[in-house]
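Notes to self, Heterokaryon incompatibility domain-containing protein:
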Amino acid sequence: MPPRRQHHGPNHWPKQDQQYRVLYFTGDGPAVTQQLRGQPRRGARPQLSRAPRKPKTAHARYTSRTEWASASPLGNPGVSRTVCALSYCWGNVEAHRTTRGTLKSHLGSIPCEKLPRTLSEAIHVTRELGIPYLWIDSLCIIQEDEQDWKKEAAQMGAVYSDAHVVITAAALDTSHGGLFRDRDEASVRPVLLTASSPPAPRSKSRRYVVPSGGDWEAASYSPITNRAWPLQEDILGARILSFRADQLSWACLSMMATEVDPDGAVSERDRSSAAKRAERQSIRLRSLRGVLPGPTSHTSTQENRPASVRERDVRFQVWEKVVQQYSSRAITMQTDRIPVILGVGRRLEANLHDSFVAGIWRGAYCLRSLGWQAEAPGDLVAHYPSWSWASTTSRVSYSMLSGPGAGEATVDYQASVVHFDGPLSED
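result:
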């Protein structure tokens, strides 16, 4: 996946029948592969836009998490392990899954031509990035096996937080739509202009001319953002490479960008109000990961120190925001209401020196976590107690008990949880 060459000739100028605008600020940089491989450079431009040629023979293989977890990093011990993780929507029917009946054959090989298009093209992207492993839930978890699902669901947060790149299929709500699609590349290719103006003619500025449709509004609202499971995957992933219907977008903790805005530098004054709201929402979600403690394998001495009251408050607010965001999304199996964000909870447990059951924290934040309220009538969910937000299908909020120090209130416990017989209750 080589860096995209700069195009300045007439064949790559803006089309006459398309609206363009000049961006307020710009920078430049090489291909997205440099950023994804642990060499962050501003303005990376990915080239994965055309459907790849199918190789004559292509096979995947089922492998355990233990095997890829022991793989050596990509030449840099400070980056995540050499594995990609796929975030996508299954759709109504998953055509190819690992079950007890297919496990033996999957341990040998899985012909890529038999996989849904999204899965096979994700394998192609992983190969192009030079990464040896790709984690796909439908293939890496033994389906219809309650014990294996329970074990793997408890580890899904670690899978996505340890992944070097999370590949997101954002365009469709099915696994058969694929990542790549035919398009006119000129419609999303920014044109770089260098301009000077009096009274300093020697002072030159650089501007991108991009299509007017290149807002973060479209990047933020896609079929996958309506689903519950991808929320945790998006928050915990260190790097997100998202395949949208019209273009690529990519994000890390320091920036978000698209093909039409490769530096992530579209000025506020160049955005519509809807696009501004969409971008702020995306920034809020990505910023949640910035205050989460790091995964166990990459925890520093500084992260091991006791957290202050303020730090605990900030990190507990992460939990509240995740629950509020998650509760507004669709989920197929209502019993997954806790497992779907378990990874975020596990990341917070050690730092808060606390644990939770059925989505409610046991220690100093017990009262505050009980202070949720349903924003609209919803159906009751079996398997969860009525005092848990997971017991309702309604969107919930935490406006009843909020503010600095609210979670540090002294609680006089009149009862305690003796046993909880629910999803992941033994973990």
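- Residues 1-59, 66-80, 267-271, 296-303 have pLDDT under 50 and may be disordered.
- The chain has two domains: 22-190+214-291, 311-408.
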